[in-house]
Amino acid sequence: MCGIVGYVGNRSAQDVVIEGLRRMEYRGYDSAGIALVHADALAVDKRAGKLANLEKAIDETPLPSATTGIGHTRWATHGAPNDRNAHPHLGEQRRVGVVHNGIIENFAELRAGLEAEGHDLLSETDTEVTAHLLEREVLAGADLTTAMQNVCRVLEGAFTLVAVDAADPERVVAARRNSPLVVGLGEGENFLGSDVAAFIEFTRDALELDQDQVVTITREGVSVSGFDGTPAEGRPYHVDWDLSAAEKDGHDWFMRKEIFEQPRAVADSLLGRRGRNGLLQLDEMRLSDQELRDIDKIIIIAAGTSFYAGMVAKYAIEHWCRIPVEVELSSEFRYRDPILDYSTLVVAISQSGETADTLQAIRHARTQRSKVLAICNTNGSTIPRESDAVIYTHAGPEIGVASTKGYTTQLVACYLLALYLAQVKGTRYGDEIAQIMAQLEQIPAAITEVLERADEVYALAEEYRTSSSFIFLGRHAGFPVALEGALKLKELAYLHAEGFAAGELKHGPIALIDDGLPVFCIVPPQGRDQLHDKMLSGIQEVRARGARTLCLAEEGDARIEPYADHVVRLPRVPVLLQPLVSVIPLQLFSCELATRLGHDVDQPRNLAKSVTVE
Ligand code: M6R
Fold first, then answer.
1. Which of 282, 337, 380, 532 has an alpha carbon 20 to 30 Å from 150's alpha carbon atom?
2. What is the number of the ligand 1 atom nearest to the C-alpha of 402?
3. 115 and 200 part of one domain
4. Percent of the chain scored above 90 by pLDDT?
5. Per DSSP, which regions of 64-118 are E strands?
6. Ligand 1 centroid from CA 50, angstroms
7. Could you tell me the pLDDT band of residue 1, with boundaries at 50, 70 and 90?
8. E-state strands within 227-323
9. Where a domain ends, among 441, 465, 493?
């Protein structure tokens, strides 16, 4: 939800900010804007639409050169996505400029107060009030850091703010509450960003901030304080991926690149998990074996694709550990008064680590004395920081809005958690755990095999290019994969797509089946009692009613052939691990279909990568 960049140093601030915005654009692309500090004034340009519109405007009417600047890409919350509501917003005298991510909940009241004082606010945004409030403070004599501390104390809601003062050109000041912000540490220059991708080209040394902190960057250094002015310190860390990880590497879309990175991402997520003694080890588990043994219920909370990873985790944890698992949408969790206590483990799954619904849900869980374990891909993000334990997924940066390697590595982390619990609770023998680990270690090669058949899937995308509706069917661990396949198609191709548990079809959804309707069928491996047979019956039922069946089935499964219009072959893997391979053709299909339909695959309409508002 909105990408933010700030810079002070010796380089062209315009170049640094625009480059940072390019990498932040996945967070929102309703508008983009920049403010540069030049000759005691702010030079501002901001445009509705993608960053390209801003770049074109700057090409036509260049901004003055400057070495201090801020920038923003917007995912609109308050006010339509037009030029006027684009950030940066300025104070009345155009002395202070602000960019913002989040929602200022008491903005209406603050705005009324400013208007009563005679301020004229130009936009419909909640952000503009902060520019006026900050400017009022600096005009009264405060420096920008003190002004930020004072203003943040009256703001309610979630926000990252980054501000510049034209009269203080060597300083950029930012603040955060429940919204992401990291500092990039350079030599004679410093950076701010919603995440490290904003400045990864220039430095891999970063500083993580806590909630309710203000940070000031100058060329010489960085200082941190609380909103009350108490000095504080950020936590330095080194980013373990580089610029090439944030580039497209010859692919047309980040999404396609990320699909093809999955063998490596899955392998990396498995690295270093087995100790010398053969036992599983999870480095940042931070929960003692006794605490884990005391767990009698697990609640998994997540949103979107991460929620579907959680659904797969339920099958694995219940089967291997015999602990009851509930899986719940994080946006629903807190509002139903869930029953939790110290013996409930809450597992929060989030690629970004910043999803507001999930963050609020874990906070609620902790007030109920439950332990929270985060499964997350983003080092330094809020959800793992506020959790008791974490399993990082090591997928590398995921830039495409549609989650791909984020999902498969979340699955790996879920399997690892399940196996670790089984080890600690003794519900599986060590050799069984070692056998499943060995099977997991074969998965990168299995994913590679599926990827080698990408052209078959692309041909299907061409064949079904004009279809306006798709159904996805699965059973058991294939059911969440069906839901994920449908979500991918909705978000990328903007088509009607629904995922169902195949057994549920006859209870209503079968009425949707019409002549020629494409139905993806995720066929379970044959080794599992009854599951395969039941799936075959479901496929026959839809085919008998005119559906075109696109079956994902394992090598050697000949029984599927009479009922399949197309078969995409999957390598043989155990039933519980099949989601790791069966999701791949579905990712390829939606990426390719959306491309052929002329959509922007990396930045689908109305979406943002990281949803930091509830
Ligand atoms: O960062 P998170 O995993 O918490 O994000 C959750 C969802 O917003 C995310 O998975 C979303 O559904 C993706 N766009 C799906 O591709």
1. 380
2. 16
3. yes
4. 83
5. 68-74, 89-90, 96-104
6. 21
7. low
8. 231-232, 235-238, 297-302
9. 441
- pLDDT at residue 299 is higher than 80: yes
| Domain assignment present for 404 | yes
Q: Are residues 388 and 288 in the same domain?
A: yes
Which residues lie with the beta carbon below 6 Å from any ligand 1 atom?
303-306, 350-352, 355, 358, 401-403, 487, 491, 610-611
Q: In whole angstroms, what is the distance from residue 233 CA to residue 224 CA?
A: 6
245: CB partners within 8 A, 6+ apart: 396, 397
CATH code for the domain in which residue 466 is found: 3.40.50.10490
> What single string gives the DSSP state of each residue in 28-45?
--SEEEEEEEETTEEEEE
Report how far ligand 1's centroid is from the alpha carbon of 490 (Å).
13
Task: Point out the ligand 1 atom lying closest to the alpha carbon of residue 355.
Answer: 4
Can 609 be counted among the known catalytic residues?
Answer: yes
Ligand 1 pocket: which of 194, 254, 300, 306 to mutate (most atoms <8 Å of CB)? Answer: 306
Is residue 614 included in any domain, yes or no?
Answer: no
Residue 180: predicted pLDDT: 87
Question: Which pTM does this prediction carry?
Answer: 0.80
Residue 337 and residue 381 in one domain: yes
Could you give the angle at which helices 127-139 and 144-154 cross, rounded to 10 degrees? 130
Q: Are the beta carbons of 374 and 348 closer than 8 angstroms?
A: yes
Looking at the 3D structure of the chain, how many domains does it have?
3
Q: Which residue, 492, 486, 487, is CA-closest to 400?
A: 492
For residue 58, CA distances in Å to 4, 9, 52 come to 19, 21, 10
Ligand 1, atom nearest to 607 Cα: 14
Examine the domain organization and report whether 219 and 263 are in the same domain. Answer: no
Contacts of 103 (CB under 8 A, 6+ apart): 77, 78, 126, 157, 158, 159, 613
CA 488 – ligand 1 centroid, Å = 11
Tokens of 369: 């004395």
Q: Which of 410, 441, 472 is the last residue of a domain?
A: 441
C-alpha dihedral (527, 531, 535, 536), degrees to nearest 10: 50
pLDDT at 95 over 80: yes
CATH of the domain at 204: 3.60.20.10
Q: What token pair was written down for 485?
A: 């396949």
Count of Cβ atoms closer than 10 Å to residue 452 Cβ: 9
Of 590, 441, 425, 604, which Cα lies nearest the Cα of 520?
Answer: 590
Beta bridge partners of 91: none
Does any domain span residue 610? no
Residue 612 covered by a domain: no
> For 563-575, how does the pLDDT look when each residue is reduced to its tens digit (9 = 90+)?
999 999 999 999 9
Contact, 375 vs 391, CB < 8 A? yes
Candidates 2, 152, 321, 376; catalytic one: 2
Structural domain for 49, as ranges = 3-247
Q: How confident is the model at residue 380 (pLDDT cuts 50, 70, 90)?
A: confident
Which of the 8 DSSP states describes residue 280? Answer: B
Whether residues 452 and 431 share a domain: the answer is no
Same domain? 221 vs 324:
no
Q: Which atom of ligand 1 is nearest to the CA of 406?
A: 3
Alpha carbon of 103 to those of 22, 74, 75, 165, 592: distances in Å?
23, 12, 11, 22, 35
Q: Indicate if 298 and 411 belong to the same structural domain.
A: yes
Q: Kindly report the protein residue whose alpha carbon is nearest to atom 9 of ligand 1.
A: 304
Residue nearest to atom 4 of ligand 1 (CA): 350
**Whether 432 and 456 share a structural domain:** no
